[in-house]
Amino acid sequence: MGIGNIFKAFQPKDKVFFVLFEKVAATLTQMSKEFHEGLMDFDINDDTMLKNMSDYEHKLDDLTHEIFVQLGENFITPFDREDISHLASGLDDIADYMYASAKYIYLYKTPLDPAYTEFSLLIYKSCVEIQTAMNNLKDFKNPKGVKESCIKINSYENIADDVLSQAIVKLFETNDAINVIKIKSVLEYLEIVTDKAEDVANTMDSIVIKYA
Questions:
Q1: Residue 13 main-chain phi, psi, to 5 deg
Q2: Where in 39-129 does DSSP place strands (E)?
Q3: What percent of the chain shows pLDDT beyond 70?
Q4: Quick check: is 82 in a domain?
């Protein structure tokens, strides 16, 4: 390897990583928006929303894979390698659990619980804030903006906890054992999505504390 190529290998790849993370965040926002809209106008006989969720999940898998490829190929990164790994995995988890939620809603074929759309709206709002935070995280240009988005995401997760508790109480009042099992499972998947969003927020907050 020539001396020029050696120096090139050690050059920071800030743009590569930030561009990929911004793509992931934007795709998650699109995915969560379609998920929410799909539940607002839900038709169990039309699986278009489920197919779209699957497509988004595969697209995000590819982007996550590319982040890890770049992590393996580059010696110098814009922030700690472990933080990049945690951030990439956390974002991928949001997509995975969102897709799982959609899948089980279709598989179980139960009446939609009103809490589903409450969750999907919280998930969408969380993803919007993740995208905003990711844009502000680039080059550490707006640490305060990142923190503000992280606080909002944490508040959405707290609301989601309350939504889950109230929905389960109402669910048990129906005395329909089969539907209780099915709907409770979906509700828990939806709540996990907000947990994963909070994990991402905590990772971004940690990065800002370390490097901004």
A1: -110, 45
A2: none
A3: 93
A4: yes
Number of H helices, E strands in the chain: 7, 0
CATH number of the domain that residue 152 is part of: 1.20.58.220
CB-based contacts of 111, cutoff 8 Å, min separation 6 = 179
**Token representation of residue 195:** 């947990």
Answer yes or no: is 135 within a domain: yes
Q: Which amino acid is at 56?
A: Y
Dist. CA 160–CA 72, nearest whole Å: 36
Is 166 part of a structural domain of the chain? yes
pLDDT single digits (tens) 174-199: 989 999 999 999 999 999 999 999 99
Do residues 35 and 53 lie in contact, with contact meaning Cβ atoms separated by under 8 Å? Answer: yes
Tally of domains within the chain: 1
CA angle 196, 202, 207 (to 5 degrees): 130
Q: How far, in Å, CA of 165 to CA of 172, rounded?
A: 11
Average pLDDT over residues 74-88: 88
pTM score, whole prediction: 0.91
Q: Is 148's pLDDT higher than 50?
A: yes
Quote the tokens at residue 66.
């590319």
